[in-house]
């Protein structure tokens, strides 16, 4: 049997390369620094491609990759991989989500220490031949309150490290239960309470439409005067112009940022040159240990997949055989989108996810579909680090009860999927099916019969059932240059609350959504994204 050919196109540690070369049945080539054209010219020869952040696996690369079976990303992010086209071509995309969690958390702690004691500024001063001891008076961490926004895997490690400094740790995370937070020794509070109480704030949430720009002038105005803020999560969560203004006014005493809205940082960024600010060039995962960990992990994963058909940390494919995958693939897409849809429109921390497979779906292997539903739902809570393999474990670790049942009863459709999510504030149920052409469709939301295409960006309106609603929504969107692709309506009966679902070509901003909520007869608006 001919050997599988593996191409390593980005720098990988010697240990990772040695694992690949030491696996019987693999032939390994190292070709780093290639541009897109060079990669396209050689990729057809390879069964596997191992990358980091420098290589972009585009549609053009995938079209040329006629033998490619797997792309292994040494790291968490797969933004540089066209996962949708990889899935369409049957290419497994893997990442290594656990390799740099500790490293990122430690960097956040290091940034907090540097900020509190003005270490970078003092170092620069003494290196220039000065002795300005009185200029660099800092503050202690002892007994201070650390507010963590996002108490997931990185945030929880930061909390443990902060306890070592005898800090009081509070956290805001709408997607974790108070009991789970208490077990970490963390008090769960509202965002308003966190702003008011925290001496230091460390951000560890994902960048989503809701979190983009959430730390802005309004947020800074609510914070304790003289607080300090750290961001080693994602650029774009902090409005950097508003931060600079808040520092100049004295509302914020200092900031430490490892991530930025634009990277590399623009030369006109207002934070550059400010003495109260500590900046690093996205170093959260940049330790030798983290680089080694992700290299070893991706090498083992790719080798096991090629030689043993074992799939771990797959972004786009469940652990099932190819014949079965061909049958259930449309329902994997439906499940992931149904999970994402219900999660994104349901407020609060998730407590239960109940799934019912009806009709012909009850005859299929539902485990991978359940994994897909959990992946879609949990991405709304913890971000893109979720995959089909780790989704059940993430649900369990967050105390979410998951149940899946089957029913042979056939209703309006031969196959029907129901997803019900219960949070600490409400319950939401939706039903969906697959239309001709393998198109995932929503067919019922709560008690309302409504069809909607589950793709792209869509807005879910809850509104009073009265004349003029469609016109008012359409008029506002027209004024804001928001193009509507599809408009779906549903209601239980005349005069009751109705639901409108609008597919849009571009997602509106949070300010635009806030304005939509002011439209007469509109009760609520939720943005759902299927990126």
Describe the structure.
The mean pLDDT is 91. Strand 10, helix 11 (240-249) and strand 11 (252-257) form a beta-alpha-beta unit. A seven-stranded parallel beta sheet has the order 8-7-6-9-10-11-12, sandwiched between helices. The protein folds into four domains: 1-97 and 287-317, Rossmann fold (3-Layer(aba) Sandwich), CATH 3.40.50; 101-279, Rossmann fold (3-Layer(aba) Sandwich); 318-446, D-3-phosphoglycerate dehydrogenase, domain 3 (60s Ribosomal Protein L30, Chain: A); 452-531, 2-Layer Sandwich (Alpha-Beta Plaits). It has 17 helices and 22 strands. The chain has 531 residues and is α/β, with parallel strands linked by helices. Helices cover 34% and strands 24% of the residues.
Q: What CATH first level of the largest domain would be assigned?
A: Alpha Beta
Task: Tell me the distance between the termini.
Answer: 39 Å
Provide the number of structural domains: 4
Helix content: 25-40%
Number of helices: 17
Major sheet: size, sense and barrel closure? 7 strands, parallel
Q: Rough shape?
A: globular
Query: How does CATH name the architecture of the largest domain?
Result: 3-Layer(aba) Sandwich
Q: Which residues sit in consecutive blocks of at least 5 with pLDDT less than 50?
A: none
- Strand count: 22
Overall structural class, as computed from helix and strand content, comes to alpha/beta
Mean residue pLDDT:
91
CATH homology superfamily of the largest domain: NAD(P)-binding Rossmann-like Domain
Q: Within the largest sheet, what's the order of strands?
A: 8-7-6-9-10-11-12
């Amino acid at each position: 049997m001919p050997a599988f050919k593996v191409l390593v196109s980005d720098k990988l540690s010697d240990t990772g390369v040695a694992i690949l070369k030491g696996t019987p049945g693999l032939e390994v080539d190292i070709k780093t620094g290639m541009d897109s054209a060079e990669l396209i010219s050689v990729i057809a020869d390879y069964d596997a491609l191992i990358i980091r952040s420098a290589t972009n696996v585009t549609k053009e690369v995938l079209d040329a990759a006629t033998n490619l079976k797997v792309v292994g990303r040494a790291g968490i992010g797969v933004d540089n991989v066209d996962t949708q086209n990889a899935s369409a071509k049957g290419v497994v995309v893997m990442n290594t989500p656990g390799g740099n969690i500790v490293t990122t958390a430690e960097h956040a702690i290091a940034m907090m220490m540097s900020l509190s004691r003005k270490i970078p500024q003092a170092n620069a001063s003494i290196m220039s031949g000065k002795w300005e001891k009185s200029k660099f008076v800092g503050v202690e961490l002892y007994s201070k309150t650390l507010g963590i926004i996002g108490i997931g895997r990185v945030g929880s490690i930061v909390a443990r490290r902060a306890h070592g400094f005898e800090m009081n740790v509070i956290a805001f995370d709408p997607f974790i239960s108070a009991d789970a937070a208490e077990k970490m020794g963390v008090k769960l509070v509202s965002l308003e309470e966190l702003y008011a109480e925290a001496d230091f704030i460390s951000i560890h949430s994902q960048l989503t439409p809701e979190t983009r720009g959430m730390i802005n002038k309004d947020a800074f105005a609510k914070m304790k005067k003289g607080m300090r803020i750290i961001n080693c999560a994602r650029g774009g969560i902090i409005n950097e112009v508003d931060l600079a203004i808040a520092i100049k006014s004295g509302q914020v005493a200092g900031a430490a940022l490892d991530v930025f809205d634009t990277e590399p940082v623009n030369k006109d960024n207002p934070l550059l040159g400010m003495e109260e600010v500590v900046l690093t060039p996205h170093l959260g995962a940049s330790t030798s240990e983290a680089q080694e960990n992700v290299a070893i992990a991706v090498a083992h994963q790719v080798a096991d997949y090629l030689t043993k058909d074992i799939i771990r940390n797959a972004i786009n494919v469940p652990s099932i055989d190819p014949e079965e995958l061909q049958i259930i693939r449309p329902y994997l897409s439906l499940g992931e989108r149904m999970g994402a849809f219900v999660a994104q429109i349901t407020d609060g921390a998730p407590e239960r996810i109940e799934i019912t497979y009806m009709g012909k779906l009850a005859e299929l292997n539902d485990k991978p579909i359940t994994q897909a539903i959990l992946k879609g739902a949990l991405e709304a809570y913890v971000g893109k680090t979720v995959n089909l393999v780790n989704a059940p474990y993430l649900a369990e670790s967050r105390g979410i009860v998951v149940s899946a049942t089957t029913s042979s009863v056939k209703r309006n459709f031969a196959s029907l999927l129901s997803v019900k999510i219960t949070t600490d504030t409400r319950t939401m149920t939706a039903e969906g099916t697959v239309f001709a052409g393998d198109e995932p469709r929503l067919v019922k939301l709560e008690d309302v019969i409504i069809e909607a295409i589950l793709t792209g960006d869509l807005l879910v309106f809850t509104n009073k059932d009265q004349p003029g609603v469609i016109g008012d929504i359409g008029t506002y969107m027209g004024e804001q240059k928001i193009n509507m692709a599809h408009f779906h309506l549903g209601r239980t009966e005349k005069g009751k609350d109705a639901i409108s679902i609008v597919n849009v070509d571009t997602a509106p901003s949070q300010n635009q959504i806030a304005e939509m909520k002011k439209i007469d007869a509109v009760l609520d608006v939720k943005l759902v994204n299927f990126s």
